[in-house]
Specification:
Order of helices and strands: EEEHH
Distance between the termini: 34 Å
Bound molecules: zinc ion
Shape: flat
Number of domains: 1
Strand order of the largest sheet: 1-2-3
Oligomer: single chain
Low-confidence stretches: none
Amino acid sequence: MKKCYFCRGEIQEQPVDVIRKRKEPALSETKGQVFIIENVPALVCQRCGERYYTAEVARTMDEKIAEGMNKTKRIISVPILSFDADYEDWFTIVNQRHPEIV
Ligand SMILES: [Zn+2]
């Protein structure tokens, strides 16, 4: 069995929901549109949750997002939250506490 690249945890096949923002076409009004793709076959680390996709699955997700609204199963409304961090202070604090990261 394969191990997670990051934490060496066990990896298992399982379907996941993937949230993606549409990046193309750049000038389209659908740029930035958020899609949820359900039941994506993934390999998931049982320790840290990292997800791995085969190249074919990743390509299929890109194609589905490109097809966009034409293939929509249903539409839900999604609450948007903001972290509202003052990033200059936040990075200063992280740098002081965890200089190995920044
Ligand atoms: Zn892991």
